[in-house]
Write a structure and sequence with these properties.
Layout (H helix, E strand, L loop, with lengths): L8 E4 L2 E4 L2 E7 L5 E6 L2 H10 L5 H4 L5 E8 L2 H13 L2 H14 L1
Antiparallel strand pairs: 1-2, 3-4, 3-5
Length: 104
Amino acid sequence: MKQKKDQLLLIIRGCCVNRKWKVYIVECADGSYYTGITTDTQRRILEHNYSFKSAKYTRSRRPVRLVYEETVENRSVASKREHAIKRMKRKDKAQLIKGDKNEL
């Protein structure tokens, strides 16, 4: 059976793991934005809000809420996109988030 490259699933120790990388932006309680990458956005948001595994930046700015998510092909692309978003001005990030909401 032939699978598409972006739908590739890896089987690790009997568990099926989706290896799609995502770039995400969360809005913190103080109104600031935090950008990160992950393979499981839902888990990562829970970590930001409730776990000691959260980023140091978001730990003191809880709760956070997901405002933007973008799926990319691999970790390298995700890291480069994260860096590009982090270099954006707040106005540009807000426009990116707003544009994403208009597509839904």
